[in-house]
Known about the structure:
By secondary structure, the protein is mainly alpha-helical. The protein folds into two domains: 5-102, Winged helix-like DNA-binding domain superfamily/Winged helix DNA-binding domain (Arc Repressor Mutant, subunit A, Orthogonal Bundle); 106-170. The protein has six helices and five strands. The protein has helices at 13-35, 40-50, 58-65, 69-81, 105-132, 139-170, and strands at 5-6, 11-12, 56-57, 85-88, 97-100. It has a three-stranded antiparallel sheet. Strands 1-2 form a two-stranded antiparallel ribbon. Helix 2 packs across helix 4. The longest helix has 32 residues, at 139-170. The radius of gyration is 23 Å and the shape is elongated. It starts with a strand and ends with a helix.
Amino acid sequence: MNPSVIANTGVSETGASLLSIQREMASVFAEIADLFGNPSSLGAIYGLLFASPEPLSMEEIVERLGISTGTASQGLRRLAEMQAILPKKEDGERVTRYEAKLELRPFVAMFLEQQLLPKIGHSAERIETLKQKLSSIPKDSREELGIRMERASKWHRRAKTFLPLVRKFLGG
Length: 172
């Protein structure tokens, strides 16, 4: 038996090492995606493509990550919308292959636009609503809580000013 082939799987030691690295990178990006409120499968797909020297087909992604075709399809569509991956189809080829863009900019811009800015806006509105309820609590608590709510409002105003500048800097 060829010593470079692993236990009758037909996968060479080099191929197994690459697959191991790809899966670990997929795991790293899955954790990051989850941290930012995105599906972990989205991060896993990007991580796999990031660690793949060659573009991969959806079928290869499904096989390597052990995810459903639907999850892979939805994740690839979302990553393409975010401009984080490039779909490629060679002349005469029926299968689309995908490769990762190696820039962080699309992710940060998307996170700011779709996650952070709306949440900051919503929480600022909630704080303003809470301020209106201050009159219903005892005066000794009202003053301290009023100071704290004003500070939280100030943080939101700063974020609303700063984050669009970051977005503009990133070209988002």
